[in-house]
Structures are given as structure tokens and as C-alpha cells.
Amino acid sequence: MDREFLIDLFAGFGPVTIRRMFSGFGISADGINFALALRSGLYLRADEASFARFEEAGSKPFSYETRARTMTVRSYWQVPAHLFDDTDEFATWAKDAFAAAQRAALSKRPKKRAASLGANEPAPARGKRRPAAAKKTTTKTADKSKSNKTPKSAKTTGKAAAAARTRRGTTAPKASRTPSKRPR
After folding, report:
1. Residues 37, 6 contacting (CB under 8 angstroms)
2. Which of 16, 75, 113, 145 would suit a FRET pair with 27, their CA atoms being 20 to 30 Å apart?
3. The CATH number of 3-110 is which of 3.30.70.360, 3.30.980.40, 3.40.50.300, 3.30.1460.30?
């Protein structure tokens, strides 16, 4: 699948951003990824609300193989073959995939965010940071004998201290610089 084909395919959905990703492309709208175009096919984002629809169409979830096993990613499902011929129905499936991606993005947002904002302070735009609050200043007492600070520990630093810790067994010895003998 090339970029021009994807642009034509998603034309009924609306404007999309297509970026290189893995061995293919990531397709997003409004900064939210909702589709993957890889060597193995085109995949749309899915969630609990749309799993059954993909299963009924005979689609399978995205999977890849590692050295040890096959990993299945249920959040992306292969686009059914009949959708490549019907761009209007494909646009409907793409809109559903975008909605699933939006729901996933909302569920990942921190819950504490609304409570931490001030009453008159607007929320920062996505990806923007709020300016840091002014640091509080404290006054120090003139009488240091009444201070509750504990003295610094007698921890020593330097080569001699590291050697002493190694002798006591508190620091692991340095690993050898020879390459590992694991199979490739």
C-alpha cells in the first residue's frame, strides 16, 4: 500500500495525516492514530464496542511474531476485503475506528487533572505545559541549634569508598567487556 492509495481510500472519511511507522504507515486525524497500514495489511482501531463487528466480517486482530511466541494486539483489526471496493462503507468503518481511538485516548487521560486546575485557570492546550508556579520562600531561623535537621550521613565517596563497599559485598563487580554468548 502506498501513500496515494491510502489518501484516496480515506477521502470519504475526511482529512488524515499519514506518517511512516514500523514497516508502513500510521494514519491519524486530529492527532489521534486510528489506523495502521503495514506490509501485512490495513488495520483499524477497535474496542469492546466494535470487536463483534470485525469478527462478523471475518477479520482478525493484528498479530506479530517474536522469537518466543505470537503476540496478538486486539486494539487493531484487519480491514475486511469488501471495504476496499466500497469507499462509503469504508468511511463509516473508519469513523467508527476513529471514535474507538478517541475513547481509548480519553480513558488514558489522568483523572486528577480537572481537580488540579485552579477555578479561574483554563486548561492548557494538548501538548502544552502550564508555566511553573512561583516557588515558596521560607525564612531560616538564626539559631541553628534549634534546627530539626539531621546531620549528613557519614557516607564516603571516591575510589577508596567504592572499593570498601565492593569488599563488603554491597556493590556488584563490573561486568566483563566480552560480548555475550547468546544465540542469535
Report:
1. yes
2. 113
3. 3.30.1460.30
